[in-house]
Specification:
The protein is of the alpha+beta class. Helix content is 32%, strand content 25%. It has seven helices and 16 strands. The strands form four sheets. Strands 6, 9, 10, 13, 14, 15 and 16 form a seven-stranded mixed sheet that branches. Strands 1-2-3-8-7 form a five-stranded antiparallel sheet. Strands 4-5 form a two-stranded antiparallel sheet. A hairpin with a 2-residue loop joins strand 4 and strand 5. Helix 1 packs parallel to helix 6 and helix 5 packs antiparallel against helix 6. The two termini are 27 Å apart. Bound molecules: ligand Q0Z. Ligand Q0Z binds next to strand 1, strand 2, strand 3 and strand 8.
Length: 287
């Protein structure tokens, strides 16, 4: 039986198709971006690693929040998912001070309305994880907003439910990851509502594209941290003196091989499953 997929959206490295009125197909490519630019060279299996990691986390957090996952296709990179009404909010949780949270803190001592202790350094662990929602920018970067602005977008009750759920998801995953040598500095969720109005975790969950993964054994606050997955790519791009505007540079073979190995290492450490097993039967991560 054949199937007519209708393309509905493109992300930087993923594509979204309609299967039917109730279902979407989310396909993760092997494209990689750095400094916000998609590079011309792919990282073999990157899309499979990210798809498998998301599915692993969807399966393990079902009791905290239901999710959009219906099943994985045999290619290991395609997720059949429930079509939801998406909330107009990027739901970010930060356990460490990095990226726009660090920028906000340097300017104002706070981020998304959370007053933070003085004297924090870049990449310091926060006293407790914080929920820092942002708007979904159609162009450019998402903008961090405070709770009042987020409540305007989704309502108070829904806001409180999303904050509580996001913090609990982060607590579970960051504890698991840290025990396996990976710090999840921060992470972004997207939630939707099903036809009954129930909150559903959608998109991707705890992938290195939606989170900052740092190698725990190299953690040294007081500056930027190496990226678990993309550091070879960043180092190579910096060595070229590339201006970080499109087009990005082609990557040499050793950078591709080293980066692929880091993605596979993250997958195997976090799931406890061999990547070859995943390729044989992707659903293994959900059992
Ligand atoms: C996700 C996105 C893109 C990848 C829409 N379950 C869902 N129901 C309704 N909408 C979405 C989902 Cl996941 C949805 N996105 C973001 C866009 C590729 C993800 F082009 N957009």
């Amino acid at each position: 039986m054949s199937e007519a997929l209708v393309h509905v959206a493109s992300g930087k490295v993923r594509e979204l198709f309609t299967i039917d009125d109730e279902r979407l197909l989310l396909v993760a490519s092997d494209r990689i971006s750095t400094f916000d630019v998609v590079l011309p060279t792919e990282i073999p299996d990157k899309g499979r690693v990210l798809t498998g990691l998301s599915a692993f986390w969807f399966a393990r957090t079902r009791d905290v929040c239901s999710n959009h996952l219906l099943g994985l296709r045999a290619d290991g990179r395609s997720t059949e998912c429930r079509r939801l009404e998406m909330l107009p909010l990027e739901c970010v949780v930060r356990g460490y001070l990095a990226g726009s949270g660090w920028k906000d803190y340097q300017r104002s001592g706070s981020t998304s309305g959370h007053a933070l202790p003085s004297g924090l350094r870049e990449s310091d662990e926060l006293p407790q994880p914080i929920f820092t929602p942002s708007t979904k920018a159609t162009t450019g970067h998402d903008e961090n907003i405070d709770a009042d602005a987020a409540i305007q977008l989704v309502g108070r009750e829904r806001y409180e439910e999303v904050e509580r759920t996001a913090l609990e998801l982060y607590r579970m995953a960051s504890e698991h990851a840290a025990a396996h040598g990976i710090l999840i500095a921060d992470t972004k969720f997207e939630f939707g509502l099903d036809a009954d109005g129930a909150l559903v975790l959608a998109d991707e969950a705890f992938t290195p594209d939606s989170s900052r993964f740092w190698p725990a054994d190299e953690y040294e606050p007081g500056g930027t941290q190496p990226s678990f997955d993309k550091q070879f790519v960043r180092d190579y791009c910096e060595s070229l003196g590339w201006g970080k505007t499109p087009p990005g540079p082609e990557l040499p073979e050793e950078v591709v091989t080293g980066t692929r190995a880091r993605y596979v290492e993250a997958f195997e450490r976090l799931t406890g499953i061999g990547f070859d097993e995943y390729l044989t039967d992707p659903e293994v991560v959900t059992r």
